[in-house]
Amino acid sequence: MNKKTLSIISYITIIGWVIAYVNYNKLTVKDSLTRFHLKQGLGIAILGIIISVALTIIAAVVPTLASILSLVNLVVLVLWIMGIINANNEQEIPVPVVGKLFTDKFDFIK
Amino acid sequence: MTKSLQNIFYIILFSFFVTNISHAQKSKQELLKLIEQAALSPEAKGDYLCQLSSCYKKTDTIKAYHYANQALILARKENDIKSQAIAYEALSDVARFLDNVSLQIKYADSSYTLATASKDPKAIAYANYAIAYKNEFIGNKEKYIEYMLKSLAYFEKNKIRYDKLVNGYENLGAYYIDHNDLVFSKKYNKKALDLAYESKNQVNIANGLTSWALFLVRDAEQKTPADPDLLKTAEKNYLKAIAIFENEKRKGNIIGSYGRTCLNLTSLYLYHFFETEPEKTLAHLKKTEAVCLELNEPMQLMVMYGQQAQFYTNLNDIPNIEKVLKKVSDIIETHPKINPRYFALLYKNYMDLAEIKNDFASYKKYFNLYDKAVAVMMEKENRARDYNASVRFETEKKSQQIQLLTDNIESRKKINYLYTALVVLVFFMLLFMLRSYHFRQRSYIKTNLLLQKANEEATLLSKIKEEEAMIALLESELTEKELQIAIQEKKLNEQEKIKLQQELMTNNLQLEKKNEILKDIQNKLSTMKSEKSSDIKTISKTIDKSMEVDDEFELLKTSLANTNPVFFSTLQEKASGTLTKLDFKYCGYIKLGMSTKEIANHMNIETQSMRMARYRIKQKLNLDRETDLDTYITSVQ
């Protein structure tokens, strides 16, 4: 798999991220594009998990808000798609709003 | 007494024809055969079972209930909501004939709920039929008429269940008779008759005829005395109906409504033809008794005995009256479920009878019994009224709840639509946003690339320019050097020229000197002429020759002209062409920087003449007195 494909796969939920990460680790020549998008993808996946947990708690407390709050999950999807677009264009641009938080974290991805 | 008996009779009669008997188009045997068929769809089977139930509902309610229940079970097994609704309607109808109001209402409600859930027009029509009877019982006139008409409109449109159609229109007609609205009554009775003829079912026709005759009697009674023509037509209709029933009876079908027709005909004779045809009235009474006994219907029997009592009262035949009343009381005792109103009426009649016979003891006895019966009746009626009210209240509440629920469902539907629209909108907006994000990034990348290219080009250009500037600088340096070199060369040239001129001058001088020496030698030779004249002459000749040949001036001039060509031309210009060769010679010497004396010496002339020559040159050159000729000539290039 080339670097572009790996970058795109790293955004397709946490499963896709794991596949991309394993494949990336096998590579002898690491490239910055895949590393960048692996960081972004992991960041968004973790954010999604946090959001869904928070929403479940809120929905349990205030059931009337549940249907409206479930729309927030859509944000994660949108971020993922934006990341995929970035990867497809082979750009090292962080996703809007939260992307900058992940650029200097997750140093275990070398 | 006549009055009270008439009371019994009317009350019984009305309650009787309002709760009419309906008849199926197909006979019971036909229906039973149809049900036995193996290849019958469950829906059709349920339909036939319901029809069978409606056939039996008057004569054998248990069987009717059984068939309706079978239809319901079948529908439940098939999980068919609309068939369930129809089966519930049949059950409700059976319950109506059992006088079990609560059950009737329950079944009607079930039927309606299921029918509305199934949204099947047929099921809704059946349910409306059941609901109409429920409303009639509750006393909700508008709703009864509304639901009945709705239901009948469907049956009429699809031409099914003519028994229900005829029955329904008959009941509507009877309802309007009760409310003294003969216009509508006529309309609906007529319709019932038309539909009965359309159904081509003999029983339906007979029922329609009976209803039409009833309406005609009622119409005739509007006038006092009653319209004899209308009464005659009514009688004819009754007789036609009876003929049909007789015909059916001969075929083996005993039909419940036969009794009704007979009773109504007898009452017609009793009230309108008693005076004119008492024998005929009696004959009909006997016949009716026979029919009623055959049918064994307590209500019909009671009405029949009531008519007999009326007849005997008209004849004032007391023992017969007593006999008849005894029969009525027997019937009441054998059927304990009968309305207590009949007890009260019976006791009232006994009381009247005792009054006629002046039998106080029995009068008192019957009065007490009457009192009790009335109390029971009142209580029952009160209870019934309470029940009616409660049922009415409940139905209203329920209908309100249903309305609320439907409103709720509708609002929920609207909200659902709104949500769906919102979701679609959000989806498209997201799609659009992401698309624009993608393309913006693309264009950003493109412009970046272009910018990079432009930058590179710009740097290249600047580099080229710098190089060009460097080259230009170098070139300019080169030219400067060249210039300097040229200047130096020029200087060198000039120096050489001056050197050459000086050399030339010195050469000239040397030549002059030599010439002088030669002249000296010539002079000396001439002095020595006398001695050796011939030899010397030759020598002097050679010297002269050499002197003439040696035209030094020309040489000088050419040498001067060669070295400084402008010099003589400028001088000539200044003097406007007046200078002679000699003048040029002087000028040349002056240019060489020789003094006047030196020149005079050199030219071998007097100093004075040299001065004169100088003066002439000065004039020729148009010079002022103050300007020195020497300086002027040296200044001329």
From TrEMBL, chain A:
Per the record, membrane topology reads: Multi-pass membrane protein
* Heme found in the keyword field: no
Q: Where mainly located?
A: membrane
Task: List all membrane-crossing ranges.
Answer: 6-24, 44-62, 68-85
On whether Transmembrane helix is a keyword of this UniProt record, the answer is yes
**Where does the source fall among the domains of life?**
Bacteria
User: Which UniProt key words apply to this protein?
Assistant: Membrane, Transmembrane, Transmembrane helix
Question: Where is it localised?
Answer: Membrane
Entry-linked InterPro entries: MamF_MmsF
Q: Name one Pfam family in it.
A: MamF_MmsF
Protein name, entry field: Import component protein
Organism, scientific name: Flavobacterium pectinovorum
TrEMBL record, chain B:
Q: Which spans are transmembrane here?
A: 417-434
Coiled-coil zones: 464-531
| One record GO biological process | regulation of DNA-templated transcription
Q: Which residues are in the HTH luxR-type domain? A: 593-620
Q: Which GO terms describe its molecular function?
A: DNA binding
- SUPFAM superfamilies with a match to the protein in the record: C-terminal effector domain of the bipartite response regulators
Its recorded name reads: HTH luxR-type domain-containing protein
Record organism:
Flavobacterium pectinovorum
